[in-house]
């Protein structure tokens, strides 16, 4: 994507000159996107200490990337002292979500609108990995703005967008969550700004349908959940989440609900909406029935009979009771429960994955009782899941031989670090939305107070290490943008709880009635349902 540079007149009160990026070498390449902006948002060592929120806003604005003079996103990290930038100078789809919310809540809509439309154009790019192209509809993991000289003129330059669909990523994994987050952000933009013209555009409707068709495509799987490889979401390295990870399923469910609200009612969409409705019912039933675990369910699994060859089997996935790990027996409180991380034949991943559980609350994938139970568990196990910095990305960490086998001895994902039990401040905003939805904001307020004690002093790291999150992550980038924006969004939502509705999906009465008819113990038989849903 190419464009001759022209500066925008203004954005969020900043002049075009203030938003003009400074061209600094990145990994030795000149013309790469800015590391720090000049003007009133530049950091100055001799300035007086600001409040945490003021500092966070300055840092967030300093991370903004412009394309042809228009703001289109925020880079992943903005640490001027880092010698290992890697791809942290790029705009990541998932990383921009909290940044976009922060700007939306401040009434600065242009950057989010630009982000939505430019990433949509990138969707149509040809994507190839070793002569193979993935399905249409895949959204990039990230993109980067580069300034390159024009061949025709010596002094003239133009800006180009370079997108990464996973073909340059570590492990070469396609980002399944990018398209799901894009749909969720599109709905939030319309609800917050009141501008529905973006989601009604023909190209936006087409892009949304391409994502949905890619996700709803038929395959060999017997389950309504999305089947993905390891590392296809926020946990983008090998961590044993291949299969049907909860994070992807929760985002998938939320994206389906958001898309159903926005799809234009036309003849060409009828089949897609029908398939979407059928999948929503089947997915919600599957997750609520088979992923849920509490003390009662754990005891039931403990007494499972195995090798049941029957249509009416209780232990449908042939889970062996010996799979119950010793830590879980001690970890599970008397009051509370959660959705497990993954479910496959003869395998349950009993780890607690924070994002998947929180977004199951936000999207109403979890029932009302299950949602409260998840928050009950977080409160009961505060010392394990939160400790000194919110909040563990997963619990517990893989250690010893298990770590060597599952991660491939990944030196970045050692026990209680990074994706393997590290603590990620950016998850604060998802925790806040979930708590507000369940009318329990005091949990989020307690977490925010912990963050404010040290995150500014620690220079806004990407993640924290150790069981109690006492150390800054050993390879954590400082001035991590989504750590900054995650804190700001949490503060904004707590100050105005009604604003959290832009992400909340309320439970659909039609889905509830369809779920009531779905009895997991019913015998296999041919039956014609009058409802327009198929389970």
Automatic annotation (TrEMBL):
Gene Ontology CC, one term:
chloroplast
Reaction(s) catalysed by this chain, per the record, are:
Hydrolysis of terminal non-reducing beta-D-fructofuranoside residues in beta-D-fructofuranosides
Annotated Gene Ontology MF terms?
Answer: endo-alpha-N-acetylgalactosaminidase activity; sucrose alpha-glucosidase activity
Q: Which Gene3D superfamilies match?
A: 1.50.10.10
Q: Supply the EC number(s).
A: 3.2.1.26
- Alphabetical list of SUPFAM superfamilies matching this protein: Six-hairpin glycosidases (SSF48208)
Q: Which residues form a coiled coil?
A: none
Q: Which GO terms describe its biological process?
A: sucrose catabolic process
Superkingdom of the organism of origin: Eukaryota
This protein's UniProt keywords: Carbohydrate metabolism, Glycosidase, Hydrolase
UniProt xrefs under InterPro entries: 6-hairpin_glycosidase_sf (IPR008928), 6hp_glycosidase-like_sf (IPR012341), Glyco_hydro_100 (IPR024746)
Q: What does this protein do?
A: Invertase that cleaves sucrose into glucose and fructose.
User: What family is this protein classified in?
Assistant: Belongs to the glycosyl hydrolase 100 family.
Q: Which PANTHER family match?
A: ALKALINE_NEUTRAL INVERTASE E, CHLOROPLASTIC, PTHR31916
This one is known as: Alkaline/neutral invertase
């Amino acid at each position: 994507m190419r464009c001759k540079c022209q500066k925008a007149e203004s954005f969020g009160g900043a002049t075009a000159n203030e938003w003009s990026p400074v061209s600094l070498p990145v990994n030795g390449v000149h013309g790469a996107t800015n590391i720090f902006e000049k003007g009133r948002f530049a950091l100055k060592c001799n300035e007086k200490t600001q409040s945490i929120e003021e500092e966070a806003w300055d840092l967030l604005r300093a991370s903004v990337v412009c394309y042809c003079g228009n703001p289109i996103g925020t880079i992943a990290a903005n640490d001027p002292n880092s010698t290992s930038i890697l791809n942290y100078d790029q705009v990541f789809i998932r990383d921009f979500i909290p940044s976009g919310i922060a700007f939306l809540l401040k009434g600065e809509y242009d950057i989010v609108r630009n982000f939505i439309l430019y990433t949509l154009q990138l969707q149509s790019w040809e994507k190839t990995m070793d002569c193979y192209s993935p399905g249409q509809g895949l959204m990039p993991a990230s993109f980067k703005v580069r300034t390159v000289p024009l061949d025709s003129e010596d002094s003239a330059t133009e800006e180009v967008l370079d997108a990464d669909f996973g073909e340059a990523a570590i492990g070469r994994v396609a980002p399944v969550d990018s398209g799901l987050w894009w749909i969720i952000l599109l709905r939030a933009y319309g609800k917050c700004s009141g501008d529905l013209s973006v989601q009604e555009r023909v190209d936006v409707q087409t892009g949304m349908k391409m994502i949905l068709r890619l996700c709803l495509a038929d395959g060999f799987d017997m389950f309504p959940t999305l089947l993905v490889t390891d590392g296809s979401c926020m946990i983008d390295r090998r961590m044993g989440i291949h299969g049907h990870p909860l994070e992807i399923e929760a985002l998938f469910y939320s994206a389906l609900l958001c898309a159903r609200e926005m799809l234009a009612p036309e003849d060409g969409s009828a089949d897609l909406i029908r398939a979407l409705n059928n999948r929503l019912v089947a997915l919600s039933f599957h997750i609520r029935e088979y992923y849920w675990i509490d003390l009662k369910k754990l005891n039931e699994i403990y007494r499972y009979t195995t090798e049941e060859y029957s249509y009416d089997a209780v232990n449908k996935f042939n889970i062996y009771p010996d799979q119950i790990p010793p830590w879980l027996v001690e970890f599970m409180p008397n009051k509370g429960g959660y959705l497990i991380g993954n479910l496959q034949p003869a395998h349950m991943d009993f780890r607690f994955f924070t994002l998947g559980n929180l977004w199951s609350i936000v999207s109403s994938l979890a029932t009302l009782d299950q949602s409260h139970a998840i928050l009950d568990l977080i409160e009961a196990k505060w010392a394990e899941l939160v400790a000194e910095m919110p909040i563990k990305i997963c619990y517990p960490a893989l250690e010893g031989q298990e770590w060597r086998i599952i991660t491939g001895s990944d030196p970045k994902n050692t026990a209680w670090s990074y994706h393997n039990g590290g603590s990620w401040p950016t998850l604060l905003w998802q925790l806040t939305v979930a708590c507000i939805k369940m009318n329990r904001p005091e949990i989020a307020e307690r977490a925010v107070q912990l963050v404010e004690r040290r995150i500014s002093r620690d220079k806004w790291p990407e993640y924290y290490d150790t069981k109690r999150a006492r150390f800054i992550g050993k390879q954590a980038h400082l001035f991590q943008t989504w750590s900054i924006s995650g804190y700001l969004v949490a503060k904004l939502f707590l100050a105005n709880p009604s604003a959290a509705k832009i992400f909340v999906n309320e439970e659909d009465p039609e889905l509830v009635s369809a779920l009531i008819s779905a009895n997991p113990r019913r015998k296999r038989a041919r039956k014609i349902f009058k409802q327009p849903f198929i389970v």
